[in-house]
């Protein structure tokens, strides 16, 4: 197993945010994390990245408790693209992406051919090579998001954790990003709000409701009309797409007034 959570519970004050969450991300799989606003997705991703400590339970990397692994060693293998990642300095795109190499370098080591290759490949994969010399402040929200993805890829991680990475992206770049992530030979855990995108690209899905896991399995197993009603409070029709063979969710309007009625 790659990343594992074993009955983790996390609280803020007396409020339980995550309760006894367990799952195992398999090496190389794309695991989608779904759930309504406030269900605990970001909190779980921050625990998986080692940025927060669970109150009880364990997060492990290849069976080793993440608390026993140094921050630098974690950063050499786990990349985290946060939802509202920002950078204040007005760096060029290529300089932001170079920051991804930081965990692999010691303070006085020279910039290597390997570093250069990782940065170039990451810029290329994230579709940001043509913007490499643009300054951060000149980028659109979607371009900034892709630059953050490039920085994460430059880290040459084995696991990548992404918190709603398609926010701000136009539909072309949403599909391109999800295709990219699903084609990478990495384990990815990705929080998504678009259920159809999750169904199309993820190998498995895990659903959180009020801090607890209520479903985990293949998109076909998880995305049922019953689950959509229970967890997301929506009426929907689910069928297998004739184009990609994955579940296709068609939402029913809650407003029952028909046009012209
Ligand atoms: N710093 C904080 N102080 C108090 N409560 C918090 C804090 N951070 C998160 N929470 C609460 O924890 C719960 C889970 O939040 P979290 O951001 O993990 O949910 P989410 O599923 O990622 O939501 P969204 O889909 O809106 O991004 C929410 O009820 C939220 O209000």
From TrEMBL:
Domain ABC transporter: 3-235
Alphabetical UniProt keywords: ATP-binding, Nucleotide-binding, Transport
CDD domains: ABC_Iron-Siderophores_B12_Hemin
Name of the protein this chain belongs to: ABC transporter ATP-binding protein
GO MF annotation terms: ATP binding; ATP hydrolysis activity
SUPFAM superfamilies: P-loop containing nucleoside triphosphate hydrolases (SSF52540)
Pfam family, one: ABC_tran
Stored InterPro entries: AAA+_ATPase (IPR003593), ABC_transporter-like_ATP-bd (IPR003439), P-loop_NTPase (IPR027417)
Gene3D superfamilies assigned: P-loop containing nucleotide triphosphate hydrolases (3.40.50.300)
Domain of life: Bacteria
Sequence similarity: Belongs to the ABC transporter superfamily.
């Amino acid at each position: 197993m790659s990343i594992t959570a074993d009955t983790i519970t996390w609280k803020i004050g007396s409020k339980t945010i995550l309760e006894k969450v367990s799952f195992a991300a398999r090496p190389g799989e794309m695991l989608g994390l779904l759930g309504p606003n406030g269900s605990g997705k970001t909190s779980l991703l921050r625990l998986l990245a080692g940025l927060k400590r669970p109150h009880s339970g364990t997060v492990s990397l290849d069976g080793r408790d993440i608390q026993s692994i140094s921050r630098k060693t974690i950063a050499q293998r786990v990349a985290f693209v946060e939802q509202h990642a920002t950078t204040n300095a007005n760096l060029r795109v290529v300089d932001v992406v170079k920051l991804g190499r930081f965990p692999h370098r010691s303070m006085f080591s020279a910039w290597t051919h390997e570093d250069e290759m990782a940065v170039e490949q990451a810029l290329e994969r994230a579709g940001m090579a043509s913007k490499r010399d643009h300054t951060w402040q000149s980028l659109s929200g979607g371009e900034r998001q892709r630059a953050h993805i490039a920085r994460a890829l430059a880290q040459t991680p084995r696991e990548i954790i992404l918190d709603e990475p398609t926010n701000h992206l136009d539909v072309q770049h949403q599909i391109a990003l999800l295709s990219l992530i699903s084609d990478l030979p990495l384990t990815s855990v990705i929080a998504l709000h678009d259920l159809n995108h999750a169904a199309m690209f993820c190998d498995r899905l895990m659903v959180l409701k009020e801090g607890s896991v209520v479903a985990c399995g293949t998109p076909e197993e998880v995305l049922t009309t019953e689950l959509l009603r229970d967890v997301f409070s929506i009426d929907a029709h689910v069928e297998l797409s004739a184009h990609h063979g994955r579940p296709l969710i068609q939402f029913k309007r809650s407003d029952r007034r028909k046009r012209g009625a």
